[in-house]
TrEMBL record:
GO MF annotations, alphabetized: methyltransferase activity
Name listed for the protein in its UniProt record: DNA methylase
Coiled coil stretches, renumbered: none
A Pfam family: DUF559
Domain annotation DUF559: ranges: 12-119
One GO BP annotation of this record: methylation
Organism (species): Rhodohalobacter barkolensis
Length: 129
């Protein structure tokens, strides 16, 4: 069963395209493991507009977002915005998991393990086969 599509601000389409074409190194690395339904058969998209945000990686079927945070997320103001963003998206049933860029570079196996575990959890929570 497909989950309903969350509306998004059309103004973000162009920005999302720009972000896809100008991905960070950590995004490019992780994308190698998410694209083409490699993550347990689920389809992830890069830089996906969802509601009033653009999520780094998003799986519509699981309502699962993956965010990669760089150095700017160490600032208090950015961290507060991240919390607000997650609260709003959770109202739509979206679960967000976050990793630091450094984790992707230095501990990719663990990042992939956490993603797989979360995908399996979401699959079970949403009763997907």
């Amino acid at each position: 069963m497909r989950r309903p599509i969350i509306p998004y601000n059309p103004k973000f389409k162009e920005r999302a395209r720009f972000l896809r074409n100008n991905s960070t190194k950590s995004e490019r690395l992780l994308w190698k493991y998410l694209k083409g339904k490699q993550m347990l058969g689920f389809d992830f998209h890069r830089q996906r507009p969802v509601d009033q945000y653009i999520i780094d990686f998003f799986c519509q079927e699981l309502y699962l977002g993956i965010e990669l945070d760089g150095y700017t997320h160490h600032f208090v103001e950015t961290a507060k915005k991240d919390v607000q963003r997650e609260k709003r998206l959770s109202k739509f049933g979206v679960k967000i998991i976050r990793f630091w860029d450094d984790e992707v570079f230095k501990d990719l196996d663990n990042v992939l393990r956490v993603i797989k575990h979360t995908v399996e959890e979401r699959k079970s929570e949403l009763s997907l086969n």
